[in-house]
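Team,

Forwarding the record for the chain on the shared tracking sheet. I've put the sequence and predicted structure together so nobody has to dig through attachments.
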Amino acid sequence: MKRVFLLIAVFMLAKAGFSQDFHFSMFNENPLNINPALTGAFPGDHRMIVNYKNQWQSISDPFRTYSGSYDAGLFKKDAESGYLSAGIQFLNDVAGTSEFTTTKFDVSLAYHVVLGYTSTLSAGISGGFCQRSLNSSALYWDNQYDGNGGFDQTVSSGETSTFENFGYSDFSAGLMYSFATEESSMASNDGIKFNIGFASYHINQPKLTFANVDTEQLFAKYMVHARGQFGIFSSNTAVVAQGMFANQGPAREIVAGVGLRFMLTEQSHYTGFMKESALTIGAAYRVGDAIIPQLMLEIANFAIGIGYDVNTSGLNVASNSKGGTEIFLRYINPSPFRYQNKSFNKSFF
């Protein structure tokens, strides 16, 4: 009985989680996790982003995901035909009652080549270390029940199987093409700009061994992503669109979204007290899983956004259609509204 429970508690978690990745619904605001070629691909010199997601709290212990990243263009101000960029990222995911934890640290490099006044080709690589662990003391075992409907977690489980932490190296690579019309900029909603990219994660497909009872291979993950902004003539409004397709072993994810971006204010020319700001309102759909309303406010160097997953899958019976809350905070220096150092900045978001 103990062994059966062990297999149910661990193997089902392993099969569902070991070979697949966690994700953010607002994937464009977690750029280093969708394509290393996005390292340094923004209108500014330095960028910091913090992400947080709390998922399925209405069902049981929630799944909590945290991410923090920093990236920068190296010698970007002096670049003419292209520039090198570097970034670092930390990710932490804690899942369910067993506190199945994934902790990852990555370093990424990318190079951005100017193809013309309005086009840029980017290539990036990343590598790092990932550790996985499980809190076996949080699990319930059959001999901790007294047979009369009572439960005493202080009673020894009697289990001898060990749940040892393990780690592995992980490598990824990607390409991206970006385009913008000459009038495009962050400070206006004129013109058109878009990017499209492809990335492969877990290229080395590392072996994952847990509790010395099973070995899984982490599937390579292939991602295609696109993002566009299309200005509405003679207005302060633009249509924004985004999409992402990911395939990892037997798992597939498709997300598509659309929204409107409104320029709210411009910076005051004399006092500087009034800062540029923009508001984006939209929604996305993860095929077969969730509708995701989203809101983002940009003020000068800062941006803050929030999204909420509303379950549409069979899980909504248990979750009451409540999926998860996701927020992010972004800081770019100098302000992306005024950063027009080089033409290739026009094609970046």
